[in-house]
Write a structure and sequence with these properties.
By secondary structure, the chain is α/β, with parallel strands linked by helices. It has 4 helices and 5 strands. The chain has a 5-stranded parallel sheet, sandwiched between helices. β1 (5-9), α1 and β2 form a beta-alpha-beta unit.
Length: 113
């Protein structure tokens, strides 16, 4: 899955910081946004080539449904699912490690790599 950007909409600051640090250390472009930015719209952000990582709940659900569609959405909500699901659901426990594994796998399978 060729993605250009990871957009984090995570309410918990510790998790948001950990994800941002870990993803940028492995060379992934990361942007963090707040719920207010989602409501105003994401002008100038090419969400069709971006993966949204968000919390569960109303904000996360709204973000997952924003138009134009995201390339993929990952919701950290304590449950788990398959990587082909839309959105992908991951447990919060171990989220940083699991997210990095998934994104590395997607990058490795990208035809441009």
């Amino acid at each position: 899955m060729p993605f250009d950007l990871i957009v984090l909409l995570i309410s918990e600051s510790d998790l948001r910081s950990a994800l941002t640090a870990r993803l940028t250390m492995i060379g992934i472009n990361v942007v963090t946004i707040g719920a207010d930015q989602l409501v105003r719209g994401l002008h100038g952000l090419a969400v069709t080539t971006a993966v949204l990582v968000t919390d569960d709940g109303p904000i996360g659900q709204a973000a997952a449904e924003v138009s134009p569609p995201w390339l993929q959405v990952i919701i950290l909500n304590g449950s788990s699912g398959e990587l082909d699901d839309r959105p992908v659901r991951l447990p919060r426990r171990g989220a940083t490690r699991r997210l990095v594994e998934i994104l590395d796998g997607w990058r490795a399978s990208s035809p441009s790599r």
